[in-house]
Amino acid sequence: MQMQTDSNFDLDNFLPYQLAVVAGRASKAFSEIYSAEAGLTVPEWRIMAHLLKAEAVSVREIHLRTDLDKPKVSRASDRLEAEGLLVKKVNPRDRRLVELSLTPAGRALMMKLIPLANQFQQKLLEQLGGDAAAFRAALSRMMDDSK
Amino acid sequence: MQMQTDSNFDLDNFLPYQLAVVAGRASKAFSEIYSAEAGLTVPEWRIMAHLLKAEAVSVREIHLRTDLDKPKVSRASDRLEAEGLLVKKVNPRDRRLVELSLTPAGRALMMKLIPLANQFQQKLLEQLGGDAAAFRAALSRMMDDSK
DNA sequence: GAGATATCGTTGCGTTTACAACGATGTCAA
DNA sequence: TTGACATCGTTGTAAACGCAACGATATCTC
């Protein structure tokens, strides 16, 4: 590991850059799977995946929890509704809120995708080898710290 | 750490998603620094940083080495040339190639940015704590594997 | 209760992006 | 040498992006 003095810099070992490259490649590789399998885009996949564990979630909550900005959630969920994968319903207690929830078709689609996701992750973890546990721990910490 | 069976899935612990979120936040936080300090965009910063360690590099090489596609390198380097931070010169040995190299002004700008970059990375590493070494090792391995 | 303020989801819009195609140059083979 | 093929950087273009502003609803304050 190279020592970094003030006027010394190596892009290849710069953390934000490495993260961007690795994340971009992983995201692209996995998106090719669910794009081919289900025609979903990245924001669409994230919304569907988030809805899986929580019934009736507002646009706002998805925006906060999944790092998608509001317009993205709004438009992606429009497309998903048009395809019959989820339904949008105004919350009667607070009519500013729109609750999203999966349709049976949406849930069925995710049941098909989840094994592929777990399988993809498994391959990544194998790449990491012995550092896998520490890597995931560090990643989780970074997620929480900057939340 | 939660065990994942086929029909069990938690987006928050899904590696590609975690990577995308963490990378996006780190990239954005750091880009605010060099954007405020030097008015650079992400591809512009990457090109400048890559040129720092290698004189006279072709567009193609930057494209391959920094995960920027060719049009991005082409247009970003146009802007950088217009601002006097680098020069483009056709390689006389192979006139298809365009060699990029920093001007003195470009190099001076980077000398100002590098301490900020190292300082930013230092803060990230402190967040990682004891897992930092394993994290970087795993990250480097993933970079090389998918190259 | 009424007006001011805040929050939600949507829409508008200028910019950036990714992908393909192009002209220019170089290489290879017959 | 010449024609076919490959590679380089640029340009064109439709789609996606981020950010701000909007209408609608809710809350807070007096």
In short:
The structure is a homodimer. Chain A is mainly alpha-helical. Chain A has 6 helices and 3 strands.
Task: Please give the oligomerization state of what you see.
Answer: homodimer
Q: Tell me the major beta sheet of chain A.
A: 3 strands, antiparallel
- Could you list the spans of chain A in which at least 5 consecutive residues all have pLDDT below 50? none
Mean pLDDT of chain A: 92
Biggest interface pair, counts: A-B, 62 and 62 residues
Count of helix runs of chain A? 6
Radius of gyration of chain A, in angstroms, nearest whole number: 18 Å
Strand content of the residues of chain A, in percent? Answer: 5-15%
Derived from helix and strand composition plus strand pairing, the structural class of chain A reads mainly alpha
Q: What is the helix/strand order of chain A? A: HHEHHEEHH
Taking the alpha carbons of the first and last residues of chain A, their distance comes to 30 Å
Helix content of chain A: 55-70%
Task: For the largest sheet of chain A, list the strands in their spatial order.
Answer: 1-3-2
Number of strands of chain A: 3
Polypeptide structure, described:
The first copy, chain A, has a three-stranded antiparallel β-sheet with strand order 1-3-2. The mean pLDDT of chain A is 92. Chain A is built from six helices and three strands. In chain A, helix 3 crosses helix 4. In chain A, a hairpin with a 7-residue loop joins strand 2 and strand 3 (98-102). The first copy, chain A, is globular, with a radius of gyration of 18 Å. By secondary structure, chain A is mainly alpha-helical. The interface between A and B is large, with 62 and 62 residues. Chain A binds a DNA duplex (30 and 30 nucleotides) through helix 3 and helix 4.
